[in-house]
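Sample pair:
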Amino acid sequence: MLASATSAAHHVFNQIGTTQNGISTVVMTTLDGQEIAIHDPGRKFSAVRLSAMTSSLVAIARSVGKEVDFHGCDRLLLEAPEGKIIFRPVGMQYPYLLCIVVNRDAILGHTLWTVDKIVSNFIQQLDLNK
């Protein structure tokens, strides 16, 4: 199953226009933090560490949500002066998480749309690989 997820993720990563969207890095991971695929042309980041942190942060967000009667976590956004990091679960029936690092010039609305597009294309590729 991981091989088809890796293939699907690489296919989708190759389709997105990262530079025009301000995206510097995209990582797909399992719920438990195992790297599936990374798109990091600048080779700035460790996929292993980003995968582990993505898993941990989404788990924490889900726990916080439970405390206030929110169910699940649709998206987690970390903002810093240098840019943003968006963490997004793929979906309930797909045990994967997405992490996207964008620069400070990225337009948030367009970036969120791109994140959702990556997820939907990834799911479509997974379904095609079944």
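The first helix runs from residue 2 to 15.
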